[in-house]
């Protein structure tokens, strides 16, 4: 009898040990790998590439020659992230002018950074007369080849017959602070206030590459559309054209037949309006 009882106890002990081992294996076993919903979603998102600066430039509804000017600006290192933006603010225009000063006169960057603080901190959409005047102020500070007129604009101004009594074509005085009240040299027109100085300066600085003024003249309306907001691309073009007006041999590129036709028309306009 004792042997039978011992045998039964031994069997029970063995079964108990085996049951414990099986339970331990069940607890410690690693679960099978599976993709979480987040992982699955991340893997399913396609890799969409942002359009390049060249592709964005080609989207613009502007003459091909202007697109080449923007490509020149890209080669120079100008910022292109907002080239498709339909308007430009005071802050954004000054940021472009910061780049211009760094390019043309880096030793004056610190001095320029203290100029026109009101415009520098304005998120309001600019009008063309304000953008022209800001461009003029940057060139006035640099001086040298960037200042003064490089075209005879007397007959041009007579042809436009601009009416300075129209308040909508004056600068926004609050954007320019003291600079709005100081007389500025306007070439052959003598001393004039900032809006007139910017207007005459813009008319007298045609690009040596495209023949366009920094802010292009609209032949259909026979005006510079002073109260119209420029695009961000217009802001870039104004600077690259100003650079071209001071550096005739800077932009050399093989022109297409379409470009040559456009240049021919631009030259005709210059002969008609500027009469050099």
Give a written overview of the molecule.
With 276 residues, the chain is mainly alpha-helical. It has 12 helices and 2 strands, in the order αααααααααββααα. α5 runs parallel beside α8. It starts with a helix and ends with a helix.
Euclidean distance between termini CA atoms:
133 Å
Instruction: Write down the Rg.
Output: 34 Å
Task: Classify the secondary structure makeup into a structural class.
Answer: mainly alpha
Q: Tally of extended strands?
A: 2
Strand order, sheet with most strands: 1-2
Uncertain runs are 4-9, 17-29, 34-42
Could you tell me the strand content as a percent range? under 5%
What letter string, H or E per element, gives the SSE order?
Answer: HHHHHHHHHEEHHH
Oligomeric category: single chain
Can you give the helix content as a percent range?
Answer: 40-55%
Counting DSSP H or I runs of 4 or more residues, the number of helices is 12
What's the overall geometry?
globular
Give the overall average pLDDT: 81
Largest sheet properties: 2 strands, antiparallel
